[in-house]
What we know:
Order of helices and strands: EEEHEEEHHEEHHHHHHEHEHHHH
CATH topology of the largest domain: Transferase(Phosphotransferase), domain 1
Oligomer: single chain
Number of strands: 10
CATH architecture of the largest domain: Orthogonal Bundle
Structural class: alpha+beta
Helix content: 25-40%
Strand order of the largest sheet: 1-2-3-5-4
Shape: elongated
Number of domains: 4
CATH class of the largest domain: Mainly Alpha
Number of helices: 14
Radius of gyration: 41 Å
CATH superfamily of the largest domain: Transferase(Phosphotransferase) domain 1
Strand content: 5-15%
Amino acid sequence: MGLGPGYLISKHVQLVRMLGRGGMGSVWIADHLALKTQVAVKFMSSALATDPNMLTRFEREATSAAQIKSPHVVHILDHGVTGDAMPYIVMELLEGEDLSTRLKRTGPLPPEDVATIVLQICKALGKAHKLGIVHRDIKPSNIFLLDTDGDIFVKVLDFGIAKPGGKETSDVTSTGAIVGTVVYMSPEQLLNAKHVDYRADLWSVAVVAYRALTGHLPFSDEDGIGSLCLAFEQGSFVPPSELNPQISPAIDAWFKRAFKRDPNARFPSAKEMVSELFTAASVVSPMSTTSLTSARSSDPRSSFDSPERSLSDPGLVAQEEAKPTVIEPSQSQAKAAASSGDEVESIATSRTKSTSPSSTLSSAKDPATLGTAAALTVPGPAMGPTPAPSKTKRLVVGGVAALGLVLLGAFFATFLTQRGQGGNLPGVGRDQSPPQPAAEAPANSPSITPLATAADPAPSAAVAAA
């Protein structure tokens, strides 16, 4: 039974209709009965299904894409062989169009759009390169643009001729064989595709960018492979600014480096390649975000999927945007602190207000003005003022002061009573020596020296010290 609507290729996948057919095989829309969604199914042509090398490539397309955990690589759901010996790959169903179709429909794209496309291609390739996988066939028809309400979202397709990574060594490419699409291939891939590395993919990305910006190819094979190789050797191509007035000389310089004959003279990584393109296009790169909470610099040579957190990480951005809290005193406490000569910052209450990070950081430079908010944002031990005393401590100190006032009042009342009766203090007769000054209390009288009156600032100082 041949392929057709209703055909079950597995227990859960049933074909609905054909999307397209080519020399390598066909692609169908299918229903995934278990997931209750539609998927795409790619079949290998029956004429090629008997070729062991082609079967290996078909299987590699599935396994390579499945190993690369990137939102910018098509998601593989399954692969296998039908009961009729038809190799297949089940993958997510994409809605949109490839870059080749987009360019035919709209013509050259603005530099900022091209920079965004290159960024997302390189994110996918950065993941692949870390695994040792080299795509070897980056071209507009393998760059799919999803329909996302005007936003650009890229999916990299077709890892069928990818150079395997890791411990896999079964590269079906023979030495000297030409693998890929000639006009998008790097000079070294054209000469020997078996031993190329990630820099061959970066060359192809630059060719795609040139085509997207100008509608033309930087190097043409119209006069044969020989003329193409000569153009590679001479590094001769038309500067894109001569073909598109929107392009700046800085972008010309970017292409000049990307198309260097020597791979060591090109961009050393996908990340640096993207960073330099955003700079040349005068577009703010998503990778250039800085944060007040991190002094770590970004190494453009590091991989896109570095285990370290990026400066554009939402967590770091959230920390940067979070405003510190300043604790300020209430009105009555502020007056009490002012009368006792204490600093206002030494009184803590539950009222708060927000200030900007810049003002907090500037106040932290002066130890005299370093408040609670600065102590929260500056690393290391807290440098804020001494915390305010608890309510219990304030009650104890206030009670002692009140008792002192009562005793002092009792002493003066006794003094005035004795004075009215005879003018003598207790223990002092008329015929004795004149009475001592009132400030000198008898030894058995309560001492008031350590206590403080309401006008004495000592209690406030004691509170602050507590």
